[in-house]
Each structure stands twice: as structure tokens, then as C-alpha cells.
């Protein structure tokens, strides 16, 4: 019996034509090359941070690391303020992502309710902000008058609502069966209860997509730090990276001053402007690279369903 089933399955398999085989080979080859092109910059950056600093300075490291050591990472983590900046960046990313995803998800749910007061007006006003803004100076003056200068919450509260994210959530929710909400409403559940108990478990793919958008945006942002943190109290890693890229030579000298005599005697681990630039860039990049794979499986489904109705 088993042999008959296997024979039937083999018979049902469609034989690939020569054209299909050629297409698949070309298709896989192109995508492998694109993948390698995306991965190589990170690989190149990493091998230069763990290789002999003098060889890196002379441009002798291409594909294989040489003189491997991790002194660059040890010394960079000793730079004054970098641990505090790491903590600020992590706190900003976590809190900012949670607030943005929660706010956009609930607002996206509310604008799907026909009984919401002036629903179409509010929704159109939200969408308009995608295309028109007051500009950089009014934005800065507004946040300054609200008391957000040198305030950690400037990283979180202004980004509570993102028009594009609201549109994604709204479109996703409109594709859900209305009967799911009706059954909960008949049992006496309010909007908040329905949203938490019924809607949120069903929209996890789009929420994961919003998490990726928000987390990457929060982690990579540095212009708001530049303009809104004059005292330097809440500097982020990305802003320090920007700052160190411009001051790498003096920073390398500062790091060398903190190294002990044995490390300074070793030319391979002696800090240079290039080694500091690359190491700080890698320290800033690694966390988001580690987080992304956990959300990637939801990303394609969430963005496709949220962007196209039906």
C-alpha cells in the first residue's frame, strides 16, 4: 500500500522543463549574490574591528581577518559616556517601540468603528500629516515650549502616533470578520476589552511589523538628540557614533591614554582613528541585527496584509 502511494506521488510530481531549471538556477544565483552584497559590508566592518589595527590602517585586510584580537571592543567600551548612551538607546528603543505600537494599534482600531465621533475627519487629519508638516523650526519651538529640551520623554511621546502605522493597522483590522467583535460586544465587553482580548491576538503579524519599523527608527535616530539635548544628559549611541566619526582622531588619542603600557607597546592593538570609527559603528549595529531575525517571520505577512485589503 505504501509503495502504491509513493508511486502515485512520484507520478503526480511535475517534471521541470529545461527552461524551468535554467530559470531556477539564474533566480537562485541572483538572490545569493544580492544576499552576499547585503551581508558583506557588515562582515567587512567586523573583520576590520578584530584584526591588527596597523594592517587595517594600511588597508591590508580584505576578506580574512589577520592578527585577531578584541582589544578594540574592550577599549571602546571604556570610553566615557558610552555605557550611559547604550542604556539610553536601549530604553528609548524599548519604551518608544511599545508606546508607538500600542498607540498606533489602538488608534487604528478606533478609526474602524463607524460610531466613532467624526471618525472620517480625524482619520483624514492623521493622513494629511504624512504629506504636510510645519517644518523643522516650528517642530523645535513646539517641543521647546512643551518643556522637552533635555527630557528623556522627547524620544517617546512625540512618536506616539505614526500615520503610516495607523493606516497599516486599520487596513489589517478591516480584513477581520466583524462577528468576532460582535460576540464579545453582546457579552458586555467595551472597546478596550475587545481590543485587548479579541483584536490584539489576531493582529500580531502587523504588530510585529510595526515593532520592526519603530525599533529600527528609534535605534538609528540621532538628529533629535543633536537638537534637543544641549546639555548632553541623554545622548544616544547613534549620536555618539556621529560625534566620534567627526572626532575620531582625538578620541583615538584619548583611548590610547587609557591603555596600559603593554597594550601601547603592541602596535597591532594600538588604537587608531579608523579602528575607533569601525568599532563604535559595529557596537551600534550589532543589537539591531540580533533583534531583527526574531520579528522577520512576521514581517512579510504583516506588511502584505496590512497594505493590501482583501
Describe the protein in words.
The protein has about 300 residues and is an all-alpha fold. It folds into 2 domains: about 140 residues, no CATH class; about 150 residues, MetI-like (MetI-like fold, Orthogonal Bundle). The chain is built from 16 helices and no strands. The C terminus is likely disordered.
Low-confidence stretches: 261-265, 306-310
Shape: flat
Order of helices and strands: HHHHHHHHHHHHHHHH
Kindly state the percentage of residues in helix. over 70%
Estimated radius of gyration: 26 Å
Going by CATH, the architecture of the largest domain would be Orthogonal Bundle
- Ends: how far apart? 43 Å
CATH topology of the largest domain: MetI-like fold
User: Class of the largest domain, according to the CATH hierarchy?
Assistant: Mainly Alpha
Helix/strand class = mainly alpha
The CATH homologous superfamily of the largest domain corresponds to MetI-like
Number of strands: 0
Write the layout of secondary structure elements.
Layout (H helix, E strand, L loop, with lengths): L1 H11 L5 H32 L3 H5 L13 H6 L5 H29 L8 H10 L7 H10 L17 H12 L3 H9 L4 H12 L1 H17 L2 H6 L8 H10 L1 H11 L2 H5 L7 H35 L3
Features:
disordered C terminus, 310 residues
Question: What's this, in brief?
Answer:
With 310 residues, this protein is an all-alpha fold. The protein has helices spanning 2-12, 18-49, 53-57, 71-76, 82-110, 119-128, 136-145, 163-174, 178-186, 191-202, 204-220, 223-228, 237-246, 248-258, 261-265, 273-307. The chain has 2 domains: 2-79 and 247-307, no CATH class; 82-228, MetI-like (MetI-like fold, Orthogonal Bundle).
